[in-house]
Amino acid sequence: MLQYLAIISFLAFTGGSQALPTGNEVVPDQELVLAFVINRHGERTPDADELSLSNEQEKLKNLTALDGLEGLTNVGKRRAYQIGKYLRQRYGYQGHNLVSNLYLQDEIAIRSTDKDRTKMTALVAMAALYPPEVEQQWDEGLGKVWQPVPYIAVPLSEDYLRYYSNCQRFKALMATAKQESINEEFKPFDHLIPRLKALTGRNFTEDPLLFETLFDLLRSQVGLGLDIPEWAKPLLPKLGEAARLAYRLYFRTHEMKKIGGGVLLNNFMSLASDIAAGKSITKRLRLFSAHDFNIGALMEVSKVKSDQSIPEYGAVFSLELYKSRSTGELSVVPVYLPQAGESTAKILHFHGCELEDFCSFTKFQEKTKEYLLPEKEFYSLCNIKTEL
User: Fold this and answer.
1) Which GO molecular-function terms appear in the entry (predicted)?
2) What is the phi/psi pair of residue 38, to 5°?
3) Residue 340's CB: how many other CB atoms inside 10 A?
């Protein structure tokens, strides 16, 4: 079973961009003044769509009875804790000192999608980021080891982080992408489709996203301690390739990228522009407990140099804004942790800033302005009625 877990992880990472490993080193002339951080939740149980592809549904239902469908598993909780440890090491006093050891509401803002697995991931990560100091210990038992930290979540139907499920325009673009891609990107996998239909009862030509759904099912099974089905073992390499292509459909066109990541980018730019203008801002660590599609969308609109493999459970991507102590100039650095607790964070590069670890903020603005999408425009474009 472990060998297939290794293969699945390898397929998820295969083809990753070249990047420089980074620790928590602080460059003397560069002060971190803003970090915009988005993580994928920890390991979860299968969701309903994945379960529908399994020929071991009863066994999976029994294994997931405690956590429920798409629930955070104990392994996922440990992964979430590793996310928090990484945040503490990088942004706490051991690293860039962006946040204090004490939980201070003016230093951090946390947003989660309205899904149990992302909300639980945020809660556990914050337990690792803020083990209570004496001043904030509120009880002789639990209060000595746990500090409650609030987050916000908005309804799924109104959340720009859930663009792929609530935006009518994005759904229309995805329908076109599916139709076109089955005769283009997925043509090399024609030989798999009849066999997969016989095994799962589903027609992958009608929805090529099923390749990723099936791959996610296998990852969930291994995470639950099950071996993958015998029929899947010889197909795993090709299935992994097809799953990655399915994931890439979310970013197939310029407009899809803009809908998916434009609001996040716009929020980062607004804060960074305020800092550039000398304005005083609070909550300089902005955290988003979300999904693989959110990491991918922000990387796309930021024009990060990457082939965009499927982010693993516990992946963390950051846009970090630095200010030169000697010149006052601002720069942006993309940092990627492939999987908290299992890998080392890496400095990536932007297209147009390939030779610079610290990309000029003005250059970054110019290169990415085409993707900016104010939140109100997102609601209008997606035909979402909201009072947010």
Assistant:
1) acid phosphatase activity
2) -130, 130
3) 27
Instruction: Kindly tell me the sign of the dihedral angle through the C-alpha atoms of 87, 304, 363, 25.
Output: positive
Angle, helix 236-248 to helix 2-13, in steps of 10 degrees: 40
124-137 tens-digit pLDDT = 999 999 999 999 99
Closest CA to 43 of 62, 21, 64, 59: 64
Cα separation values, 342 from 69, 180, 337, Å: 25, 37, 9
Do the strands 346-347 and 20-21 form a parallel or antiparallel pair, or are they unpaired? antiparallel
HSE-CB at 229 with a 13 A cutoff on CA atoms is 17
Q: Distance between CA 227 and CA 244 in Å, rounded?
A: 22
d(CA 293, CA 286): 18
**Residue 292, pLDDT above cutoff 80:** yes
142: Cβ contacts below 8 Å, ≥ 6 apart: none
Q: How many CB atoms lie within 10 A of CB 362?
A: 12
Element (H, E) at 129: helix 116-129
The owner of tokens 């001043």 is 135
Residue 289: phi and psi, rounded to 5, are -95, 110
Distances (CA, A) of 244 to 102, 196, 233, 311: 41, 17, 17, 10
